[in-house]
Inverse folding.
C-alpha cells in the first residue's frame, strides 16, 4: 500500500494552498481529487475577486481583512503572473447603503478614496483561479479522477478506499461533506454562477455593487470581462440537475434542461446587475461556470482537528447537559484535520489559513479560536446534546 506523510483530499484553492505550505516541510505530499484536474469545483467558478470587508469592527471582519493583507502580498510576491491588482470601486446599492458606507468610514481597514459615486480601494484585486491552483500545486504529486469513498483510522494513520495510507489526512472537500460523519460539522452549499463576456467596453478597475465586474483584459480587439456572482440556496432536491455535489467536472458535462433554465436566469441577472454599474456594449457571452460555496453556520471557516463526538460524550457525559469543558479535554480523531467553510471568500482566506494550519502541524503553533472546529462541536453539544 502506498503511504504518504500528508494526503489532502480536494484540489481547489484550499487544498492547493495547503499542499503548497506542507510541501515546504515534506516531499511526501499527495493531493487527491475526484475531478480530472485542479480547480474544477467551486474554485473554478469563482470570479476570484479579493476586496476588503467593510463594516464596524468585529472578529469576522478582522479575520477577513488580516487574510486579505496576507493573501494579496502572498500572491503578488510569489505568483505575480496570476495576480491582477486593479483596485476595486465599491458602489452603494441605494441611499440607505450609502449612509451605511459613510458610517463605516471611521472603521476602514484599508486606504480608500471617493470615486465615481463609490469608494475606491487600491488593495482590490483578482486572482486567476486555474493558474494559481496550478502554480501552487506545480511540484506536488497528484491523483485525479479518484473519488475517496471511505476513510478508516488505523494504527496512527488513515487509509483511503482501502488503498492509500496517510500519516496525516486533510479534508479540503469544500461543500461535499460525505467523508465526515459528525452532526456538528455542518455546511450550507450556496450555489452560484460566474460569467465571462467579451465587450467593446474597456474597464479600468474592478467594480462591486450587486455583483462584481473585473477590469477588462484585451483579447483580439475586444475586452474580456468577468462578472460574478449569483447566490442560490436550493431547498429542493437538485440531484437531477448539475447542481449536484456528487458529479464530477460539472462545468464540462452536458447540462439538462432544469440546469440550463437556472443558468440562463442567472446569466440574465448578472448582465442586468453589471449594466447597472457600467454600460457594457456589444456583449458576447463566452463562458459560464457554476459551483457551490461551502458556508459554515457562523460564516467562520472550519479549521483544525475534528472532535469525535461519540467518544467525547462517552468520556464526559455531562457536556450533553451544557457543562463547560476545555478544548484540550475533548476526544479528537487523531491525525485528521479540516480546512473548509471559506464561503464566498475562499481566495482571500485559503492562503492565510493554509499557512496557519501548516504551522500548527509542523511546529504546534496556535490557531486562532474563532476558526477552530471546537466551537461548532460545543455549540451543537449544548443545543442538541440533551436529546441524544
Ligand atoms: C460563483 C462563485 C463565485 C465566487 N466568487 C468568489 C470571489 O470573487 N472571491 C473569493 O474569494 N471567493 C469566491 N467564491 C468562493 C470560492 O470559490 C470558494 O470559497 C473556494 O473555491 C472554496 O475552495 P475549496 O477548495 O474549499 O472548494 P472547491 O474548489 O469546491 O474544492 C473542493 C474539491 O474537493 C473535491 N472533493 C470533494 N469530495 C471529494 C472526495 N470524496 N474525493 C475526491 N475529491 C473530493 C471536489 O471535487 C473539489 O474539487 C466564489 C464561489 C462561487 C461558486
Amino acid at each position: 500500500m502506498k503511504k504518504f506523510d500528508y494526503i489532502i483530499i480536494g484540489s481547489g484553492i484550499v487544498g492547493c494552498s495547503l499542499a503548497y505550505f506542507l510541501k515546504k516541510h515534506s516531499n511526501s505530499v499527495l493531493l487527491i481529487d475526484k475531478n480530472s484536474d485542479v480547480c474544477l469545483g467551486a474554485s473554478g467558478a469563482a470570479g476570484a475577486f479579493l476586496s476588503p470587508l467593510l463594516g464596524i469592527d468585529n472578529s469576522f471582519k478582522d479575520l477577513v481583512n488580516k487574510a486579505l493583507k496576507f493573501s494579496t502580498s502572498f500572491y503578488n510576491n510569489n505568483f505575480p503572473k496570476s495576480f491582477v491588482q486593479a483596485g476595486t470601486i465599491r458602489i452603494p446599492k441605494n441611499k440607505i447603503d450609502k449612509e451605511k458606507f459613510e458610517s463605516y468610514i471611521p472603521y476602514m481597514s484599508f486606504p480608500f478614496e471617493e470615486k465615481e459615486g463609490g469608494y475606491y480601494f487600491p488593495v482590490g484585486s483578482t486572482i486567476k483561479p486555474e493558474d494559481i491552483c496550478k502554480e501552487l500545486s506545480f511540484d506536488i504529486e497528484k491523483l485525479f479522477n479518484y473519488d475517496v469513498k471511505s476513510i478508516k483510522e488505523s494504527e496512527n494513520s488513515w487509509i483511503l478506499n482501502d488503498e492509500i495510507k496517510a500519516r496525516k489526512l486533510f479534508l479540503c472537500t469544500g461543500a461535499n461533506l460525505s467523508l465526515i460523519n459528525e452532526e456538528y460539522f455542518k455546511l450550507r452549499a450556496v450555489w452560484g454562477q460566474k460569467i465571462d463576456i467579451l465587450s467593446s467596453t474597456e474597464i479600468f478597475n474592478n467594480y462591486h455593487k450587486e455583483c462584481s465586474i473585473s477590469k477588462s483584459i484585451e483579447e483580439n480587439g475586444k475586452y474580456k470581462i468577468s462578472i460574478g456572482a449569483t447566490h442560490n440556496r436550493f431547498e429542493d432536491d437538485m440531484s437531477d440537475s448539475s447542481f449536484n455535489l456528487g458529479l464530477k467536472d460539472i462545468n464540462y458535462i452536458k447540462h439538462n434542461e432544469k440546469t440550463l433554465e437556472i443558468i440562463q436566469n442567472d446569466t440574465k441577472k448578472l448582465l442586468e446587475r453589471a449594466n447597472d454599474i457600467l454600460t457594457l456594449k456589444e456583449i458576447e457571452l463566452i463562458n459560464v461556470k457554476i459551483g457551490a460555496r461551502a458556508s459554515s453556520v457562523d460564516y467562520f471557516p472550519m479549521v483544525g482537528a475534528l472532535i469525535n463526538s461519540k467518544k467525547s460524550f462517552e468520556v464526559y457525559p455531562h457536556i450533553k447537559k451544557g457543562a463547560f469543558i476545555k478544548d484540550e479535554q475533548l476526544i479528537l480523531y487523531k491525525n485528521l484535520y479540516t480546512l473548509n467553510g471559506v464561503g464566498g471568500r475562499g481566495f482571500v482566506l485559503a492562503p492565510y489559513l493554509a499557512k496557519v494550519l501548516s504551522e500548527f502541524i509542523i511546529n504546534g503553533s496556535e490557531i486562532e479560536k474563532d476558526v477552530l472546529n471546537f466551537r461548532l462541536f460545543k455549540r451543537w453539544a449544548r443545543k442538541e446534546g440533551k436529546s441524544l
